[in-house]
User: Which sequence fits this backbone?
């Protein structure tokens, strides 16, 4: 996804909120949610509690479908004609469906109903089996007979399995989920709390509605009863996918270890391969699925999505038709194709597939909520919100729809700003404080980057700034979470956290907005047809060009990772999917920007623009690179050499080793001994400098920190130590110069800019004061301090327009002396020869302080004709 993450502490002191790494590909679209419907019985194993070891159910759970059928047939024969076990035809039909033997499954269902003519359990599975045989007549008939039989002879259907079927049946008809829980599932649970099938049913209901916590509780209970239940492990993987990637992976692996033929788990691996743009790997996984089930509709839908992404429309059409061959009205096929396209930011194409799915079934909620999200990301908000309403009205237990509508209510109070084709939505308070700065930055970045990349943008472009992180996550991902993400771009829509929503520290909102708008340019230029690494790489690259303190820079950590953990360009998009740590995620951003730097330096920007132009036409990235840059295998090799050289050239005189362990009491002696044994060791020099600073050995601390900076001026660790040493030694000029150098590396440290403002004030350095006040406002515009300094610097330099802006912002921030602020605003307006607002402001000052003498004098001057040119001079 196109997201900007906070930087970790080790990278120049920037703060990092620990993120859920699984959010990267999975939160954007309802991943893993629609391989089958909520009421699809084929992939949920029959519980093995009624049978002994080696039963058909256990064989099914292990993926031994042929043996399961054989055992069930033998069991059926052994109980004789008058024996009663309707689970046997069900397990046979499920096994046949798992292998794609649809006609056999239909025959099994019919035979089962001949034997168990009153069975609603067989009718329930038969309803689905018939669909996959294009036998809608029997599907509709058996479906309708469930309610008829249950109503006519309710006493007959009191056992647990029948009650669960009735609950699923009424859910499929749109019954209220809470009522189904109350009427069917919970009473069954009270009768038999040890039956795992009940927990499975409740868990699946919760999972389908997006209540992952409740779903996880119930599937955990299944595993407490049946520890080797492959499907319960898979469902738990789905539950944890959005909150705990490690647990999700663990359960997915366990599911496949128990049942290597668990097709839904295998499809998740396909989904991951597509997410990392490893299409060949995805095809290999699909081939493995097709050895089990030759024409599995979801597997073929994934293949069709890959064909679309590889610009093979004829193959895509053929695969889609094949996926629909067994059930011509299967809405899941188009839903899956469209969802995969949307996960690749192809929302325009993806939403068309959701519409096709809804033609087959206009009540298919998975497609409807996905379409709502797609439309909102395309900026088609009226229809998007309308669809969210429809989903909620149809299913008031749907968490995604509930979240969206709650968000809409929250956003109804937002203020809308518009300028030059931009629509910005912010909370009223924040819009008054820095809304104009947002618009000005958008105009600047748009003019610069559209010209540079020869792009024509479709407008309006919508930017939504959320003061609550939860609201940002729901608007962006559909669910709460994603604490580490600061902004996301969808092409014509940008969502971002405001400084008020940032947790664990701040990041310059200007750098985030610049980064995301660069995505607008490149995504629109390529019609959203670009790989993740290239999109992120260009955005980070352009950030760095715009401001040396923005973006990602070489560091000691990145140097080590370039030398030891470099990802080939051909695999770089996958580095964003499931990075082992936040550091690896940040490195993926950095490495991607370094690839772009290599492309521009070695081949020129015009060649890169040609690559983007070809992507817009549907040319696969590797072919576009080969035509304009170099073949992908050559690019892997050449970039590796480029990156290795960059790493080796970075501070070549530095000893980069670090102690294997540092005792808690480590002080001056420990670090002095370390540095004696390891000359020019950057880590040791900074650590000893900090230790000496603590022991008030300021001169030596300063000397050590200066040495560290001389060895590696790009590393930010030593600058705060050196500045602190100078400050405590009362060498304030040196402190000021050191912090100014540090400010060229660091954009997001409010304490740095506050101290620079104090020092610039002491020196009457008004121009620097303006610069650092703007920098502080870019980190946190919601504090008064930067605007106060901006006003002071403007007054000292007779910059009346800037003073009006600063004082107007301060007026929105509950100033202590309202009368004085209004009086100063009146002076500034008058200096700009704007008499009407000047009069308004002075009257507001007198309203607050009726005896304010200077305000009275100013009022007298303003009402005289002609108005004085310079009120300040007349008041002296």
Assistant:
């Amino acid at each position: 996804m196109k997201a900007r993450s906070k930087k970790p502490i080790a990278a120049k002191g920037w703060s990092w909120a620990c993120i859920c790494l699984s959010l990267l590909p999975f939160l954007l679209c309802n991943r893993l949610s629609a391989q089958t419907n909520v009421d699809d019985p084929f992939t949920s194993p029959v519980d093995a509690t009624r049978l002994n070891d080696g039963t058909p159910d256990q064989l099914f759970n292990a993926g031994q479908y042929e043996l399961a059928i054989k055992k069930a047939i033998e069991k059926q024969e052994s109980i004789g004609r008058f024996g009663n076990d309707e689970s046997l035809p069900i397990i046979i039909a499920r096994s046949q469906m798992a292998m794609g033997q649809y006609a056999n499954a239909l025959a099994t269902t019919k035979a089962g109903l001949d034997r168990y003519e009153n069975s609603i359990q067989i009718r329930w599975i038969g309803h689905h089996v018939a669909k996959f045989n294009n036998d809608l007549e029997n599907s509709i008939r058996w479906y309708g007979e469930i309610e008829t039989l249950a109503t006519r002879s309710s006493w007959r259907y009191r056992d647990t399995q029948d009650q669960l079927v009735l609950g699923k049946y009424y859910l499929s008809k749109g019954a209220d989920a809470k009522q189904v829980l109350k009427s069917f599932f919970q009473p069954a649970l009270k009768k038999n709390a040890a039956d795992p099938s009940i927990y499975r049913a409740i868990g699946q209901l919760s999972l389908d509605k997006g209540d992952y916590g409740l779903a996880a509780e119930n599937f955990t209970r299944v595993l407490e009863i049946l520890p080797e239940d492959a499907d319960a492990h898979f469902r738990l993987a789905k539950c944890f996918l959005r909150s705990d990637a490690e647990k999700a992976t663990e359960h997915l692996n366990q599911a496949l270890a128990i049942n290597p033929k668990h097709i839904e788990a295998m499809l998740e691996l396909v989904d991951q391969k597509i997410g990392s743009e490893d299409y060949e790997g995805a095809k290999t996984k699909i081939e493995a699925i097709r050895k089990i089930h030759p024409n599995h509709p979801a597997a073929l839908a994934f293949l069709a999505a890959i064909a679309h992404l590889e610009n093979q429309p004829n193959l895509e059409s053929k695969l889609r038709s094949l996926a629909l061959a067994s059930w011509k009205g299967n809405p899941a096929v188009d839903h899956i194709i469209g969802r995969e396209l949307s996960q690749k930011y192809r929302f325009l194409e993806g939403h068309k597939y959701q519409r096709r799915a809804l033609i087959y079934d206009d009540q298919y909620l998975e497609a409807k909520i996905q379409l709502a999200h797609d439309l909102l990301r395309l900026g088609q908000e009226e229809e998007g919100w309308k669809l969210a309403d429809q989903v909620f009205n149809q299913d008031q237990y749907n968490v995604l729809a509930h979240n969206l509508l709650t968000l809409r209510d929250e956003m109804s109070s937002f203020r809308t700003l518009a300028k030059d084709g931009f629509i910005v939505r912010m909370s009223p308070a924040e819009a008054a404080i820095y809304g104009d700065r947002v618009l000005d930055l958008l105009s600047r970045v748009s003019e610069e980057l559209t010209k540079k990349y020869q792009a024509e943008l479709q407008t309006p472009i919508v930017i939504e700034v959320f003061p609550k992180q939860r609201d940002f996550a729901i608007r962006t991902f559909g669910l709460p979470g994603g604490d580490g993400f600061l902004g996301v771009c969808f092409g014509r829509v940008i969502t971002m956290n405001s400084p008020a929503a940032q947790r664990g520290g701040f990041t310059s909102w200007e750098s985030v907005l610049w980064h995301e708008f660069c995505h607008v340019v490149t995504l629109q230029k390529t019609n959203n047809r670009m790989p993740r690494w290239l999109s992120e790489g260009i955005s980070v690259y352009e950030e760095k060009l715009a401001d040396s303190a923005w973006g990602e820079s070489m560091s000691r950590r990145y140097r080590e990772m370039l030398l030891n953990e470099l990802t080939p360009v051909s695999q770089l998009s996958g580095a964003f999917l499931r990075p082992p740590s936040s550091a690896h995620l940040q490195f993926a951003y950095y490495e991607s920007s370094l690839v772009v730097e290599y492309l521009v330096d070695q081949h020129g920007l015009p060649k890169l623009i040609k690559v983007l132009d070809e992507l817009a036409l549907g040319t696969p990235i590797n072919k576009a690179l080969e035509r304009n840059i170099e073949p992908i295998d050559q690019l892997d090799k050449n970039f590796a050499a480029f990156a290795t050289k960059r790493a080796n050239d970075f501070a070549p005189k530095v000893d980069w080793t670090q102690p294997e362990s540092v005792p808690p009491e480590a002080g001056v002696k420990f670090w002095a001994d370390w540095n004696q044994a390891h000359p020019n060791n950057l880590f040791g020099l900074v650590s000893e400098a900090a230790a000496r600073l603590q022991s008030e050995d300021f001169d030596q601390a300063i000397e050590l920190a200066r040495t560290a900076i001389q060895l590696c001026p790009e590393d930010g660790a030593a600058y705060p130590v050196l500045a602190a040493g100078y400050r405590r030694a009362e060498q304030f000029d040196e402190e000021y110069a050191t912090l100014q150098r540090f400010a060229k590396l660091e954009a997001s440290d409010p304490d740095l800019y506050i101290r620079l403002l104090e020092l610039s004030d002491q020196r009457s350095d008004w121009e620097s004061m303006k610069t650092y006040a703007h920098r502080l406002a870019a980190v946190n515009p919601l504090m008064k301090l930067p605007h106060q300094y901006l006003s002071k610097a403007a007054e000292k330099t007779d910059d009346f327009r800037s003073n009006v802006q600063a004082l107007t912002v301060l007026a929105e921030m509950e100033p202590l002396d309202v009368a004085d602020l209004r009086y100063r605003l009146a002076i500034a307006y008058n200096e700009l020869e704007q008499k009407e607002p000047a009069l308004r402001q002075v009257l507001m000052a007198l309203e607050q302080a009726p005896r304010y003498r200077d305000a009275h004098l100013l009022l007298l001057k303003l009402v005289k004709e002609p108005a004085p040119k310079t009120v300040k001079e007349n008041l002296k």
Remarks:
- The CA atoms of residues 242 and 671 lie 43 Å apart.
- Confidence is low (pLDDT under 50) at residues 1-39, 48-52.
- Strands lie at 3-5, 415-419, 422-426, 461-466, 485-489, 493-497.
